[in-house]
Amino acid sequence: MPELPEVETIARGVRPALRGRRIARVVVREPRLRWPVADDLPPRLAGRTVRDVRRRAKYLVIDAGPESLIAHLGMSGRLLLVEADAPAARHDHVDVVLSSGLAVRLRDPRRFGSLHVAAAPGDHPLLAKLGPEPLGDRFDGRYLFSVSRGRTVSIKDLLLNSRIVAGIGNIYASEALFGARVHPRTAAGRLGRVRLERVAAAVRAVLQRAIDTGGTTLRDYRTPGGDPGLFSIELAAYGRAGRPCPRCGAAIRALRQGGRSSFYCPRCQRR
DNA sequence: ACTGGCACCTGGGCGC
DNA sequence: TGCGCCCAGGTGCCAG
Question: Does the nearest atom of strand C lie within 7 Å of A263's Cβ?
């Protein structure tokens, strides 16, 4: 389910319910997530007070005293804010029960998500090697230029590489390249500074816009309270194969890269 | 060091 | 209705 803007929106959504609350207990009904939930995760978090909730790439980091809970929602994960005694539905794998009587519940049918506990989350193996945040100061055209010299990988796959830049997903990679008018199969190393500046600016613009509107591109997105997302972001290219390009009217095309779909305008987007 | 392909898992939609 | 197939928003790991 979640791309970076959704994770950011989720972090903002659960922050008020979590911040300053004590974690009464963590209930693990199904530990078999992408990585098994560690046996010592519940005892390490129980009794801690949540200081803050933040996002790194698509990870939620819940800072709770000397320990932090790291959560990834994978493809199908959702966080729900529920009454602590609300009956668990199918795929409700873990509850973080708060002293307030609410619980943050992880529901994840595909179980591609994961939960981890770490005293130094930034050093956790899943976070330590992430590239810069796409909305942070270190990500710009100059940076993309420096990391792409000599590389034959497509610009689309480069944007999806979390060691290069953290948290850009398949939808936003397509949308950003549409915005930058760069063909998704272009070898990253063949792009010059000017076009990489456009790519970086388009990445930032499309992500920031999605966050600012509080919206989502995702049809089945729900807020932590269970409300439907606003679904307010109009996608220009993603999922629109055969339909007209909003810029020039040519038919949008689909292609496969690394087993994933890309969408682009064959007239606007140049190699 | 890079690159492309596979793996993990469930559910929804489609054609027959 | 049912079955089989393909597809899906992520990302670590592997062989080449």
Answer: no
Q: Which residue has the tokens 């689909």?
A: A254
Q: Could you give the CA distance from residue A156 to residue A146 in angstroms, rounded to a whole number?
A: 16
Higher-pLDDT residue of A213, A232? A213
Q: Is A90 a catalytic residue?
A: no
A260 is an active site residue: yes
| Domains of chain A, each with CATH number or no CATH | 4-128 (3.20.190.10), 141-264 (1.10.8.50)
- Which pLDDT value is given to residue A258? 86
pLDDT at A123: 96
Q: C6 C1' – A33 CA distance, angstroms?
A: 24
Q: What is the pLDDT of residues A62-78, one digit of tens each?
A: 999 899 999 999 999 99
Among all protein residues, pick the one whose CA is nearest to the C1' atom of B1.
Answer: A151
- Chain segment A240-271, per-residue pLDDT in tens: 999 999 999 999 999 999 889 999 999 999 99
CA distance A104 to A226: 12
A63 phi/psi in degrees, rounded to 5: -85, 115
User: What backbone phi and psi angles, to 5 degrees, belong to A114?
Assistant: -160, 160
Q: Residue A70: what residue type?
A: I
How long is the CA A110 to C1' C10 vector, in angstroms?
11
Nucleic strand B within 7 A of Cβ A256: no
